[in-house]
Amino acid sequence: MKNNSLLIKDSILNKNHKSYYVNICWKNNYVKIGKGYPIIIQSMTNTDTADIESTVNQIKDLVDAGSELVRITVNNDKAAKAVHKIRNLLDNNGIFVPLIGDFHFNGHKLLNENPNCAKSLSKYRINPGNVGRYKTKDNNFAQMIKIANLYNKPIRIGVNWGSLDQDILSSIMNENNKLANPLDSTQIMKEAMISSAINSALYAEKLGMKANNIILSCKVSHVNDLISIYQELSKRCNYALHLGLTEAGIGISGIIASTSALSILLNQGIGNTIRVSVTNQPKEKRSLEVLIAKNILQVLNLRYFSPKLISCPGCGRTNGLFFQKLVSDIQLYLEQNSSIWMKKYIGVENMTVAVMGCVVNGPGESKHANIGISLPGNGEFPVAPVYINGIHHTTIKGNDIYHQFINILNQYINKTYKIKM
Description:
single chain; alpha/beta; TIM Barrel; Sulfite Reductase Hemoprotein, domain 1; 2 domains; elongated
């Protein structure tokens, strides 16, 4: 991609301004997004927002899973009127998660006509490709910014390749035709997305919005395109960035695609908040996207949400069923007790537990964990050494290895981690 935009002046692109962070809050719950702060996890409901009960229940599920911001669709008057009621029900249940309004096409109208909705939301999502054309586009966008400024609400300017700003796209294509070496169609698409995001942000600032109330995103469905777009976007601006592979897909393919794209960018220090956009299987919980996001951040050592289990895949040296059941049982025990431990102990979420299958790599891998067990493989001496912080602690024998190890694990936690006051 070219270093300089076809539409944005170099003097603006090369301006050395500070990195911005965005403060999103509701009541006393403050979420800071930006450089120097933890990567924040977002999610979005798929209920009809006008169905207040279903929407509230799903928000609760997303928050319980670990979502720190929840976006809801505000697409018509019924949905807009429901937002205030949803907010009140959540507050009455002690759930103060900030809500984001997802607006397309008619957001200016809905916000103008429903001030309770505008006040109840903690952030507005605006798609510059869906606010109109020509003068109507600027007027509609300006109305939304005016309301955001009135209530001091941050915005996300979310560009999507499925709904590009046609005015910017046309301008770039016209300028591109004049070049000696014109860009190809993919480069034009990328350039249009980046220009749309930054130009919209600059226009919002011109309308009085503070730079630290603006988050940008440029979402596409292909991993390599997303990576290159965000790499370029991060060079051209210092706004906080929201990452997400849009329309990632369903099942394992969607999980792998999202993980690949987000991990590469996050590992390069790009991105301040993420959402995993996978299609749910029938009857699958919406909170799956939150669990995926948490795992991405944890395996990259960017954030820790619960103790981590590491285990080998097993091979011909292991007693497959016994080993697999032991790993599964210990993982379940960690999942069931993590939230309890984290409320009681300081730093327990950083703990690593290893369950290894045989003597080849088992003892060595167990030594690298905080606490680990190495099982005897098929035909090997039936003992299972336990290591704590790299030192042999004891050796377990017998048919009740699981409960013996769990007892040692609980003793280790009680001894190692300080109790919260």
